[in-house]
Amino acid sequence: MMNSAVLSGTVAWRDAMRETPAGIAILNLRIHHQSSQIENGLDVPADIELAAMAAGEVARQLDSIKVGDAISIKGFLSRKSRQNDSAVLHITQFKLS
């Protein structure tokens, strides 16, 4: 099955980078995306704030990002935790705009 996501937007919130007990860097943030999309021939506004996270080297590279910075991200969607079905975009690649 395919699970791939691409999104551009701005950083709406970011947490301090932390490390798991195993020493893996984790950075949690929220991305705000606003655009206009065509659906069934109609112009549909797309306005969303989505939870995102980065792990390992990607988290370390993103640690200097600030609220308001423009970013394009690639990754995959998963649930937040075993107990929480909320969607989180796991960032595997990014480009600052």
Approximate strand percentage: over 45%
Please, what is the oligomeric state? single chain
Elements, N to C (H/E): EEEEHEE
Major sheet details: 5 strands, mixed, barrel
Mean of the pLDDT scores?
97
Low-confidence stretches: none
Total strands: 6
- Classify the secondary structure makeup into a structural class: mainly beta
Q: How many helix segments?
A: 1
Q: What overall geometry do the principal axes of the alpha carbons give? A: globular
Distance between the termini: 30 Å
How much helix, percentage-wise, in residues? under 10%
Strand order of the largest sheet: 1-3-4-6-5
Walk me through this protein's architecture.
By secondary structure, the chain is mainly beta. It contains one helix and six strands, in the order E-E-E-E-H-E-E. It has one helix spanning 57-62, and strands at 5-14, 18-19, 25-39, 42-55, 70-81, 84-96. The chain has a five-stranded mixed barrel with strand order 1-3-4-6-5. The longest helix has 6 residues, at 57-62. The model has no long low-confidence stretch (mean pLDDT 97).
In short:
The chain has 97 residues and is mainly beta.
Please describe the structure with a list of short key phrases separated by commas or semicolons.
97 residues; 1 helix; 5-stranded mixed barrel; mainly beta; 6 strands; 68% strand
Set out the fold topology:
Layout: E1 5-14, E2 18-19, E3 25-39, E4 42-55, H1 57-62, E5 70-81, E6 84-96
Parallel strand pairs: 4-6
Antiparallel strand pairs: 1-3, 1-5, 2-3, 3-4, 5-6
